[in-house]
Amino acid sequence: MPEIMVFAAEGRTVDQKRGLVKDLTDAMVKNFGVPAESVTVQIVESSKESKAKGGVLFSDR
């Protein structure tokens, strides 16, 4: 059972998440040769106040 974890700052729409999990599942099916039903995708969201890049909070960008 392959599992994909995606870490991202909050703010994506449900439609964007649907598209992402579909594309990731399709890639796993194609490249690993597993059935789609066995692929788990988890999106782990952080608030923009709890995530930073280059020493700057995402909320300050």
Automatic annotation (TrEMBL):
<dbReference type="Pfam" id="PF01361">
    <property type="entry name" value="Tautomerase"/>
</dbReference>
<keyword id="KW-0413">Isomerase</keyword>
<dbReference type="InterPro" id="IPR014347">
    <property type="entry name" value="Tautomerase/MIF_sf"/>
</dbReference>
<dbReference type="InterPro" id="IPR004370">
    <property type="entry name" value="4-OT-like_dom"/>
</dbReference>
<protein>
    <submittedName>
        <fullName>Tautomerase family protein</fullName>
    </submittedName>
</protein>
<feature type="domain" description="4-oxalocrotonate tautomerase-like">
    <location>
        <begin position="4"/>
        <end position="61"/>
    </location>
</feature>
